[in-house]
Specification:
alpha/beta; 347 residues; 46% helix; 7-stranded parallel β-sheet; 6-stranded parallel β-sheet; globular
């Protein structure tokens, strides 16, 4: 029996872990042990995901949330290292580009434990973003690099990484297909908010590049104010954004502000909205998965395919780039099975 330790800590990772955990559970020969770093410490952004998506409760919970980037990453690294020494896994599995991702990658690599990175090879080419630094460093210490797109594979090749690279599609697509079914049966958020399908835009704002710059944050909300002149804008308010708005005395009276929601409610809002305005990488893709146009509130995106395929645009661009087409790279919803097959074969 081989043992895989998975590290999660933030909302998008819970979603991806749900798909992988189901694939691990269906596979004989691999035991999964999950570490939750606590990076997203709000119950609505963490605990509810495990219950809604059927993720096994993490065996280890570090409870590390808040603080500066270096402080948070250092505490996580120390905590994960202690768990790895006790668990003695054959592999450590990380997701995406958060501080939890980097802490797991560093802790495992220093103990000579093989690292598998889901969503490897993504690049925004903006090293001012902590997420970009996290994903680059994590890729360079990983043994298995599971890429969602050919662009990601090409990015790794440019950086000299060609061994252990696997083009498997997007695990978020696996999760989105499952969540849409669950949300149809299990979410009544439109009724609770008094919303009609297609009558509102859905927005999310949480990236540090927006929240930590008062002028930029004001510009984001000016954009959303313009959208609100056409239709209702629903904004689940991230705790970081709420703090920044309060600190900079920014008015949000023109928005329909709601508390952070669980994944099924968020999926229901995505499925039924008119369009999406977000600085989240995951929500950009989920918009595409559910057939919604997206305006990305950033100056660049790792998901260039969504722009090239006509489903997404940067907020600085006036129109979508081209006529809409499907994105074949993202696969057919069996990415998790491919990842588990590779690990089972090579561990």
């Amino acid at each position: 029996m081989k043992k895989v330790v998975s590290v999660v800590g933030a909302r998008p990772q819970f979603v991806k872990a749900a798909a992988l955990s189901r694939a691990f559970a269906a596979c004989e020969g691999i035991e999964e042990v999950m570490i939750h770093t606590g990076q997203h410490f709000d119950a609505n952004m963490s605990d509810i995901f495990f219950s809604e998506l059927g993720i096994p409760a993490p065996k280890h919970h570090l409870g590390i949330g808040g603080g500066k980037h270096g402080e948070m990453t250092g505490k996580m690294l120390a905590g994960i290292e202690e768990i790895l020494l006790a668990e003695k896994p054959d592999c450590l599995l990380i997701y995406g580009d958060t501080n939890s991702t980097l802490a797991g990658a560093l802790a495992a690599s220093k103990l000579n434990i093989a690292v598998a990175h889901v969503e490897a090879g993504l690049r925004s080419f903006n090293r001012r973003m902590p997420e970009e630094v996290n994903r680059v460093l994590s890729d360079h210490v990983s043994k298995w690099l599971f890429c969602p797109t050919q662009t990601a594979v090409n990015n790794l090749k440019t950086e000299g990484i060609t061994h252990g690279v696997h083009m498997v599609g997007d695990v978020m697509y696996d999760a989105a297909l499952d969540a849409a079914k669950r949300a149809q049966a299990g979410s009544d958020i439109l009724a609770r908010l008094g919303l009609a399908a297609g009558s509102y835009s859905l927005a999310t704002v949480h990236r540090a590049e927006n929240t930590d710059d008062s002028q930029r944050l004001q510009a984001v909300f000016d954009h959303l104010k313009a959208v609100s002149a056409e239709r209702t804008v629903v904004l689940p308010l991230h705790p970081r954004t709420a703090n920044a708005v309060k600190a900079h005395n920014i008015s949000l009276g023109f928005l329909n502000i709601i508390d952070p929601v669980g994944y099924l409610d968020m999926t229901a809002l995505l499925v039924n909205c008119f369009d999406v305005h977000t600085d989240s990488g995951g929500v950009q893709k989920e918009a595409y998965f559910h057939g919604k146009e997206c305006v990305t509130l950033r100056d660049e995106t790792e998901w260039v395919e969504t722009i090239e395929a006509g489903w997404n645009r940067l907020w600085t661009q006036p129109v979508m780039a081209v006529e809409k087409r499907a994105i074949s790279d993202y696969g057919t919803g069996n990415c998790a099975g491919k990842i588990v097959s590779v690990l089972l074969r090579e561990l």
